[in-house]
Amino acid sequence: MPANITAMVEMDIEHLGVKPVALALENCQVHIYLDKHRVDNIPTPEVINVMKYGKYGRESGTLVMVSRQGTLTVRILKRTVRFSPKEVSSSPVVASKMLIPKKTKLFVDQSMREKEEYLSKLLVI
User: Distance of CA 110 to CAs 100, 103, 107, 117, 118, Å?
Assistant: First the structure.
């Protein structure tokens, strides 16, 4: 990614039968990916913190975005839209291993041990 991701939402477009993913980035852009290809790029005036896709009023395909400063932006998807990787860009998404901090990993391990211990005590009684 060209910048850190600040928000992510799945866009379920029923009439097309596709589910692209919208990613808000810290460089004031929203990238839309279908499978592993970027199909659209939306420039924004501010960094987006929250996004929600769904029905808004009479429109079935609406992307609502809230910026860090509190600005509300509503983008309505055209009914005639066709998401095709060949139109905009075909830059594949590179998968990488997620790095988990040591303290987080210790917390997850400890909570799993506590859950197993609790279940074993229930079975003994």
Answer: 15, 10, 5, 10, 12
43: tokens are 């420039």
- Structure confidence by residue, pLDDT tens digits, 68-97: 999 998 988 887 777 666 444 445 555 566
Burial of 62 (0-12, 13-18, 19+ CB in 10 A): middle
Tokens (6 digits) for 49: 């913190």
What is the C-alpha to C-alpha distance for residues 82 and 105, in angstroms, rounded to an integer?
42
Ordered alpha helix ranges (H), the chain: 102-124
The answer, yes or no, to whether residue 8 has pLDDT greater than 80, is yes
Contacts with 60 (C-beta within 8 Å, 6 or more apart), sequence order: 14, 15
Give the model's pLDDT for residue 64: 92
Is the confidence at residue 44, as pLDDT, over 70? Answer: yes
